[in-house]
Amino acid sequence: MSTYDVAVIGSGPGGYVAAIRCAQLGMKTAIIEKYSTKGGTCLNVGCIPSKALLDSSHHYEDAVKHFEEHGIELPGEVKLNLEKMMERKASVVEQTTKGIDFLMDKNKIDTFEGVGSFEDKTHIKIDLTDGDSKTIEAKHTIIATGSKPASLPFIDIDKERIITSTEALKLKKVPKHMLIIGGGVIGLELGQVYKRLGADVTVIEYMDRIIPTMDKAQSKELTKVMKKQKTKFAVSHKVTSVENTGDEVVVKATDKKDKEVEFKGDYCLVSVGRRPYTDGLNADKAGIKVNDKGQVEVNEHLQTAADNIYAIGDVVKGAMLAHKAEEEGVFVAETIAGQKPHIDYNLIPGVVYTWPEVASVGKTEEELKEAKVEYKSGQFPMRALGRSRASGDTDGFVKILSDKKTDEVLGVHMVGARVADLIAEAVVAMEYRASAEDIARMSHAHPTYAEAVKEAALAATDNRPLHT
Ligand code: FAD
Ligand code: NAD
To answer: Over 90: is that where the pLDDT of 1 sits?
Structure first.
């Protein structure tokens, strides 16, 4: 029987990063993945394909709507070739997942293709894809089995017209009218893809605003911009039934006043969150506890009830984000190696890759109010930047919240072009416990979108932005 220092179950961003770090630290490592391609949700049906389609659809929209204003004239009408767009996306995914195979080889990590399940706390049975089965022994195991799309109890996801993100990433035609249940990250990103490609899009959200966990100012700004792009929103609507009637999907919901409202479309994307995935793992055989949300229960070291078994990423509590899973993968590898790693969960940024992008780190204004923290707020509009006018990306703002007494930055919230990249500056500043004045006194290249960060910091420090 093969024996390992560490076995990792699941090859998503949590699992494969954990495996690499274990190997770097000199541990004999194996990784088990049930699918033929590694990379998990993120690389196969999540972050990477969705960003490929967001980029392609953005180019299409620019060609249709914005080339002319830049003085670019095309010889004929711009045509969409959805099949080719999907092929490009598939090839981006293929290149990226192959990259993981390369990294496993490079780090001398043994890989098994099959479903891993516990026989006891040190033995894992692998039902190999080729039909065989094999048991390995592992001193430590890292569970990184991720998540699957969640649904509502009364919805039958038929994968034809009533779909999840997985199907929405490979539609063969552009919907006429896409109904989206859930105005969170997936609903807005994929909604924007199909809106740009010509679909009508209606987002039905249970809460009173879209992206309800982010700062309220961001919800407001993104709603405004997406409404300008002709996306329709029905917030404060509780969906009560979803039915595929053949050519149509009928969604019924009750609004704020308890009145029944009916929506009709040809596709309905259900994007109401994701659920942790532990099916077939036989966690109980190793003494591991799974809570009523389906999450593997872990302590502050991400250790399960079995002291040699850890769990990371979407299958445990916390934000379901690839970079959170990666941080936890490194954390657990270093913990097993006897080191004392640390993760500051407050500094894990959140990004929505719509255009304009939305990015956040730290506390929202609503959270500070609730915690009764005294704070200052400085906000700077993107439209006041020369860079934004040059590119035509004038929507959005940067908002910095800092402690009223010490000026320490407590939260940074952005909407605008390339803010997915700009948020890194805020993370660095907050990691080093910078004050708003520290950021305000640093030189930011001109003309860049990053100047909005400096200006918002000036506004937060003592209300003295230079360009508004
Ligand atoms: P996963 O990536 O889910 O990987 C788990 C792996 O374990 C899977 O490959 C699964 O097959 C395997 N597995 C499960 N059980 C077993 C078993 N018993 N034996 C063997 N293998 C098993 N996050 C971001 O940060 N940025 C984004 O832009 C972003 N975009 C997204 C877009 C979409 C459409 C979706 C759906 C998600 C997106 N996410 C994004 C979320 C991100 O994909 C997840 O947070 C991330 O993949 C979680 O990583 P993980 O390693 O915990 O699990
Ligand atoms: P989400 O939690 O972001 O959004 C779900 C939305 O559905 C919420 O706004 C919620 O209020 C709403 N909702 C819940 N029940 C509802 C109901 N009955 N009727 C109407 N609305 C309802 O989840 P998601 O968009 O499905 O994404 C799943 C996970 O994947 C998230 O945790 C997210 O972090 C991750 N993800 C991240 C990115 C990114 O980082 N850019 C992109 C896609 C997905």
So the answer is: no
Distance between CA 120 and CA 235 in Å, rounded?
A: 48
Residue minimizing CA distance to atom 14 of ligand 1: 145
For residue 387, list its beta bridge partners. Answer: none
Question: Does the active-site annotation cover 446?
Answer: yes
Residue 68: the pLDDT is 95
Q: What pLDDT score does 83 carry? A: 98
Pocket of ligand 2 (CB under 6 A): 152, 181-187, 189, 204-207, 212, 239, 271-274, 319-321, 351-353
Q: 428 with 362: CB under 8 angstroms?
A: no
Residue nearest to atom 40 of ligand 2 (CA): 351
Structural domains in the chain plus CATH codes: 3-148+275-343 (3.50.50.60), 162-272 (3.50.50.60), 347-462 (3.30.390.30)
CA 283 to chain centre: 26
Q: Which atom of ligand 2 is nearest to 253's Cα?
A: 19
Report which of 297, 299, 267 is spatially closest to residue 283, judged by C-alpha positions: 297
When the pLDDT of each residue in the chain is averaged and rounded to a whole number, the result is: 98
**pTM higher than 0.85:** yes
- Pocket probe for ligand 1: among 11, 41, 360, 361, the residue whose CB has the most ligand atoms within 8 Å is 41
Q: Which SS3 state, helix, strand or coil, does residue 12 take?
A: coil
Q: What is the pLDDT of residues 131-141, one digit of tens each?
A: 999 999 999 99
Q: How far is the CA of 436 from the centre of ligand 1 (A)?
A: 35
Using the predicted structure, report yes or no on whether residue 462 has a pLDDT greater than 90: no
Kind of pairing, strands 267-270 and 162-163?
parallel
Using CA atoms, how far apart are residues 264 and 205, in angstroms rounded to an integer? 16
Ligand 1 atom at minimal distance to the Cα of residue 149: 36
